[in-house]
Design goal:
Elements: E1 6-12, E2 32-33, E3 37-38, H1 40-49, E4 54-59, H2 63-70, E5 84-88, H3 103-109, H4 111-117, E6 121-126, E7 129-131, H5 135-145, E8 149-155, H6 158-161, E9 165-169, E10 175-180, E11 189-198, H7 199-217, H8 232-242, E12 246-250, E13 255-257, H9 261-269, E14 298-299, E15 304-306, E16 309-310, E17 315-316, E18 319-321, E19 324-325, E20 330-331, E21 336-342, E22 347-348, E23 353-359, E24 364-365, E25 370-371, E26 385-387, E27 392-393, E28 398-399, E29 404-405
Parallel strand pairs: 1-4, 1-6, 4-5, 8-12, 14-17, 15-18, 16-19, 17-20, 18-21, 19-21, 20-22, 21-23, 22-24, 23-25, 23-26, 24-27, 25-28, 26-29
Antiparallel strand pairs: 2-3, 6-11, 7-13, 8-11, 9-10
GO molecular function, one term: glucose-1-phosphate adenylyltransferase activity
Enzyme class: transferase
Keywords: Glycogen biosynthesis, Nucleotidyltransferase, Transferase
Length: about 400
Amino acid sequence: MTPPRVLTLILAGGEGGRLDLLTARRAKPAMPFAGVYRLIDFVLSNCANSALTDVWVLAQYQPHALTEHLANGRPWDLDRTFGGLRVLQPYLGRDESGWYQGNADALYRQIGAIREFDPDLILVLSADHVYRLDYREVIERHREAGAAVTIVATRVPREEAGQHGVVEVGDAGRVTGFAYKPDEPASDLIATEVFLYDAAALLDTLDALADEADADAGAEDEGNDDGALADFGDELLPRLVAAGRAREHRLDGYWRDVGTIESYFAAQLDLLGEDPAIDLDDPGWPFRTFASQRPAARLVAGSSVADSLIGPGCLIQGRVIRSVLGPGVVVEAGATVRDAIVLQDARIAGGATVERAILDMHASVGAGATVGAASDDPPSAETIALVGLRATVAAGATVAPGGRVDPAG
């Protein structure tokens, strides 16, 4: 069987509003994660390890930090003369041009470039999920089934299923039902936002949906300016499922949507302990990133670190327990950091306590201050304290559980 021409599209343009202060000044895929990574590193590393070399990133919201981090694809061996990494942003000039109004709409607005590339298969990925997957396995099964779309699915707790696209599966992996964020989910099987499409089926369906939207609006010659295509789950996937040409590929390993404060927090704690959710140090499946050069972390006499990830360039003089520290973090003598995510170059002064909290880059906690508090309840936006980018907590101040310190405020 002749290898197919595969185009990978990574959707990285959403605002990520559920991450509160953390995405006020950066795109969600550019969020630091696990000490040294960014969220988009996981999907890009999966692409590199799956030998996919034509990768386009669709950016829109706050693209500057994301584009800088992508470094022309070099960390993932995608800085190539032919193929490799491209960053696509919204533009003006064609009928279908303009701002993306959802993930299906984003594909439609780049349909000219996609057709010019002329792929056989189009792999569409979200840029802000944490998982490990060999996409070659998905491609092989997709071709064997002759599917128009293969939906990679996984199981989640039933109470979380309604936050996603819920999948129903019949014989031989055929998808028999798809409901987008239903109030009453029919199952606990959800789409991971990894979709492999037959290129002709995808592009023809997008064209048809856009034409129907224009006809309904009485504006057949005005393109898709109202964003009627919206998201995959609204019209695109239900139509392909109804045609009987959708198949499911099961992801049984770890998968986490980190689109909320609580999931961003909890997913990083999943990486701690003797049995982390994902092995970040597997030489057979390296997770790669673009990072500045830093010296090794320093733990001085009298400090203590337990069950934590400590980034390069950190200086630890106090106590760190069950936490994730990004590069260059300083924890002064007498300070305690417990159950916390502390991002690059943040500083915690002596006598301060940071617990069940997230500190953004360059945040500062003054001497004797208290940020957050321990809780027996599951992590939530109401129990996780948040200190924003370059924000300062004054010496002796208290930030209550669920409190927010916004540098703009």
